[in-house]
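User: Working on a comparison across species. This one is YhzD-like protein from Gottfriedia endophytica. Can you predict its structure so I can line it up against the others?
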Amino acid sequence: MEKFRITAFEKDGELLIDEQFEALNDIEAKKIGEDKLQSVSAFDKTHRCIDSKGKLILFHP
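Assistant: Here's the predicted structure for YhzD-like protein from Gottfriedia endophytica:
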């Protein structure tokens, strides 16, 4: 299992979510990240999901 981090922000900089999670691969991490964003109504907000090495998995400006 690899570690990933999902973060999302409001336009004013307010942090909506900042969670670390584990997934088997990038595809699974993208799905988990999207589910976490949906759960806090942040899918259309500025967000990113990265792996433990900083590789961008999911991004929305």
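For your comparison, note: The chain has a mean pLDDT of 96.

User: Helpful, thanks.
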